[in-house]
Amino acid sequence: MAQAGVVLDKDQFNCSICLDVLKEPVTIPCGHSYCSDCIQNYWDQDDYIGVFVCPQCRQNFSPRPLLSRNTMLADVVERFKKTGLQEACVPDNERFAQFDDVECDVCSGRKNKAVKSCLVCLASYCDVHVQPHYESAAFKKHRLVSATKRLQDTICPRHDKLLEVYCRTDKRCICYLCLTDEHKGHDTVLAQEEIQQKQRQLGDIKQSSQMRIQQREKQAHELRQAIFSLARSARATAEESDAVFTELIRSIELKRFEVRELIKAQEKTVISGAEQLLEKIQKEIAELKKNEAELDKLSHTEDPVLFLQSCQSLHAPPVLSASPSVNVEPNLTFGPVITAVSDFKGLLQEVCQGGFVSIYERVREVNIVGGQHHAAQPETTQSTESASAEHMEEIVVIPSSGLDQSPINPLNPFLTAGPTVPTFAFSPFGSRLSTGSRQRHLQRRRKK
Q1: Average pLDDT over the chain, rounded to whole?
Q2: Strand pairing partners for 55?
Q3: From CA 361, how far away is CA 401, in angstroms rounded?
Q4: SMART domains, from UniProt (predicted)?
Q5: For labelling, which of 134, 283, 317, 370 has a CA lying 20 to 30 Å from the CA of 415?
């Protein structure tokens, strides 16, 4: 590969998520490659949404793509780790100093890129000319640092001496001669000691920061789990509530059918009894008319002997059976039934209203982050681990403290009713206050 002129860099084999060399590389449908664990963990955060995004090109995938190991890329990465491909493939002309690089102070002609700077020699060296500092005993006490263009900043501008002392009073680096001059009597230490102390402080700050990061990551994980669990529970609850309301609708339809059949059965029974009574009355009327005709015929008989003989053979008038009382109102209807159905409707609306209020309260109690957001408090780098732990908000599932004060529809609390006054309120203990409609309904029933 080096002979073909291909220049490879270590960053080409880095995962854009963990910024480290690829481990078990996999390729997603858009063509980008990542560590298997990195992309799995990255997509686990979006699992509850159902849409998975490439971290680089932001292309969306749904459903979640299946991942398979990129064998060819894995072999190249393994060879890169074993053979140091980056160094082998860098051309010699890239060793020369570029515009922003530090030049070697020893090279003649075209200068190479410096890799180290000596604070004693106040010069920068390339990887070839720096070797005497490693091999010769004369340079053993010289201090080498990474190549820098700011070597003059390490020299006292007044005494031309190395800045090896730190003045804590003036918070600046000075040389030894400055101790006997303008910094006499100041709180001073060796620069190396101050560096060690600052590094310890930075270590403590870094440790505290890592603790806070871990706590935040733990909270983020718990929050993602809570969101996923709540979303799954919401879907399941919605399906179960649909099933309950469907069963309730079926029950109401069944009752409607039963009431209709009850009315028809009552109509058939009452009309059948009335028709039987009407037939019996019509028969009695026919007998009475027949008897009346015989009497009328007898009264017109002129032969006295025949009249007397006929009077002896007369039968007594038929005895009428006792007739039940008949409701002869001209507007006889099922009016009381309509009233009873209307009362049932009002009672059902009252029960539904109370049920919706209870459902509304239970739905509003489901929350992930409870209470108001805490006031933001500045976190300084000097804060200790215990202080940072006190400022961490605890993420728990807490029921909400109350309901919104917006107007609510009397039959469906989930829908606002505009400027109308709500027909229900809540007592301090959360129970619903009566609107009076149910009391009026019960009074009407007692009067009947």
Answers
A1: 75
A2: none
A3: 10
A4: BBOX, RING
A5: 370
Closest alpha carbon to 371 in 348, 390, 353, 396: 396
Within a domain: 5: no
Domain boundary among 59, 90, 121: 90
3-state secondary structure of 340: helix
Residue 140: which of 118, 114, 116 has the closest Cα? 118
Q: Which has the closest alpha carbon to 122: 147, 101, 157, 97?
A: 147
Mean pLDDT for the stretch of residues 103-119: 85
Cis peptide before 63 (omega within 30 of 0): yes
Domain contains 275: no
Give the pLDDT confidence of 68-109 residue by residue, as tens digits: 888 888 888 877 766 554 444 445 555 777 777 888 888 887
**Total number of domains in the chain:** 2
Rounded Cα distance, 423 and 420, in Å: 9
3-state secondary structure of 272: helix
Identify the pLDDT of residue 222: 92
Residue 178 buriedness (CB in 10 A; 0-12 / 13-18 / 19+):
buried
Point out the domain boundary residue: 90, 109, 127: 90
One-character DSSP codes across 290-320: HHHHHHHHHHT---HHHHHHHHHTPPPPPPP
The reply to whether 374 falls in a domain is: no
For the full predicted model, state whether its pTM sits above 0.70.
no
Q: Is residue 156 a part of any domain in this protein?
A: no
Confidence at residue 379, expressed as pLDDT on a 0 to 100 scale: 45
Mean pLDDT throughout 305-321? Answer: 69
Token digits of residue 187: 């709180």
What's the domain range around 28?
Answer: 10-90
Residue pair 22/77 in contact (Cβ under 8 Å)? The answer is yes
Residue 272 CA from chain centroid, whole number: 65
Whole-angstrom distance, CA of residue 179 vs CA of residue 19: 46
Neighbours of 31 (CB within 10 A): 10
Q: Which two tokens stand for residue 238?
A: 């919605």
Residue 301 in tokens: 């008989």
pLDDT at position 9, please? 54
Task: Look at residue 254 in the predicted model and tell me its pLDDT.
Answer: 93
pLDDT band at 134 (very low <50, low <70, confident <90, very high): confident
Per the CB < 8 A criterion, the answer to whether 284 and 248 are in contact is no
pLDDT of amino acid 240:
93
